[in-house]
Amino acid sequence: MTLFRRPQPTLVAALLALTGTASALPGASLQVGMPAPPITAARWFHGTPVSAFSTGRVYVVEFRSARGAATPIVTALAQKNVRQASVLSVSVAEPGADLEQQATELAAFVRSQGPRLKYALAADTTNRPLAQTWLQAAGATNLPVAFVVGKDGALAWIGHPAKGLDEAVATALRELPPHVKARTPSPELALRQRVAALRRAGKPREALAAIDEATASDPILARSFLSLRMSLLFQLDAAAARAEGRKLADGLYRNDPPVLTTLAGILLAQREPADKAYALTLAERACEQTGYDDVGMVSLLARAQAGNGNPAKSVEVLEALAKNIETSGGANTPELQKVRGEIATYRKTAKMPAPAGSEPAEAPNQGLLVPR
Question: Is the pTM value of this prediction over 0.90?
Fold first, then answer.
């Protein structure tokens, strides 16, 4: 059994990621062909700050969660197109997150990368203006998501970095006419934009109905929209949401760790102790099925343990994970730094003394962007 593997996105990020290219979609105030919004009020940690887009140059603007580094495709693009395109990675923390802690982590990440870091790195600020003017305006509900700004300063592409970003950049660099750039949006992206518009209009019931109608005969799409659907259902009918969550977790998705992790995260956000207790059950099941070596899943398990009043157990499971990472040659990696930061936080919560000779570590942000 592999002791450690690099963290994979849980369902919240991996399955809700945008696919395809956005074009003229109903309900989105920011679409392909429109001028790119400025990057204002960002806090820059590496590279030359970009507030306006220069004519004649292509830009890639990737928004990612505060937990991770830029996606591999964005990193590769930055290395390959350094003279032709500017690549920017913007870290977006969840509402209420500790931005100073985020800044500490980003600064440490920049130091760890040194000259290998070829893209500019920034973070959104307190009132999350970039999340509002870019992500919410485009109807993007989850991270990562990338925008390609063409040589004319207009948006040429919007989507998940792993779903066509390379091709989009190549097209933008060739500077094809606007009518050639236009593409048909994927059904998933169109549905996400429609649901986002309904939520912004204060119509959660209609948004839920739109999801149910579109996914009724498509199990793959239904799995992709599970987290969003469950969030809406909890908003409308918590009892029905609990029943639905248990039915899925104990049935169709019993042996699906990413789905179990997603359901656990949703339940942890609820106030009822029974929800938190069941979240712990699901998190433990997901970790058992993956050998306790998925960083994201073990981190969620630690949160569930703390949420059920046992932060000392959180420390125990994270220390085991940290040991596995070190054994697998992951010393001083960003992943290990984050785990150590979480350990320090849970030690403090549990009123446990720090290990002798250890240096204090900061706790990482938890996460994912889920605009309300």
Answer: no
